[in-house]
């Protein structure tokens, strides 16, 4: 069973104690997946279509508990998706259908049905508790949630923009910032933030699903933190190894081109220590020097050795060879600080 189906299973067992909240939930279901049929002699009947058996069961229970009316349930296969079943909850008695439509304010006192069963500006969603029930009914009718192990996405599909705007407004009353996108001929109210989806589940009173989502979010956050830390440490190690390889290559070039005796004493000592301990850290290299030097001092000397190697390479490329000379008198290769160390 998918995460979305588990939420609907939980919500199908959730029954508001107050009758006005039950009416608000029925109004949302009728508005999004209900149909009104009017015969030639003005006989009203209601049909609610859904592909989820738990939603059909909830509609049956709501109508029975709220209005004490009998309903019929029929099952047929989807013509386009042969494996899926469509469940229809029908209220065929004219008097019962009128009671439901009037209670949900979908039928005016003059007997007119709101266009597209619109509940916009409907009095059934004035109270906060009724708005919670309305959102619960809307999700049961045409909502879904993606698998949180993969990504976060909550949505309710509406047939008209007015209904989508109404849902967006009701969510905003609970400080949930939903957005609307057009998908084919429908208007989709969606949420992509994990925190906001948690808040939405709390509003709909799907507490078991909320705890499951929170556990998944905690595990994903922990895995993300571990991965980031590992990636950071790996990057630092790669950077350190690359720097050490370059340093050893530059020092080897200086040794072969000039010999360490031509380097300032401080740099010569640094070069010998680095070659002797290619895997040592800057701190460990500094402790091997006499006298010991801090990490910044070691880093400065190693950078100076690399700089000298680059200068020599450039001169070799320009002149073809480099003559033997004392590096301690060439200002372009080193500074006085290196000679004095």
Descriptive account of the structure:
This protein has 341 residues and is of the alpha+beta class. It folds into two domains: 3-212, Homing endonucleases (Endonuclease I-creI), CATH 3.10.28; 231-340, no CATH class. It is 55% helix and 13% strand. The protein contains twelve helices and eight strands. The strands form two sheets. A four-stranded antiparallel β-sheet has the order 1-2-4-3. Strand 7 and strand 8 (186-191) form a beta hairpin. Helix 8 (207-257) crosses helix 11 (295-319), helix 9 crosses helix 11 (295-319) and helix 10 packs across helix 11. The longest helix has 51 residues, at 207-257. It starts with a helix and ends with a helix. Mean pLDDT is 84; it is low at 321-341.
Short description:
The chain is of the alpha+beta class.
CATH class of the largest domain: Alpha Beta
What sort of overall outline do the alpha carbons produce when their principal axes are compared?
A: rod-shaped
- Let me know the CATH homologous superfamily of the largest domain: Homing endonucleases
At CATH level 3, the topology of the largest domain is: Endonuclease I-creI
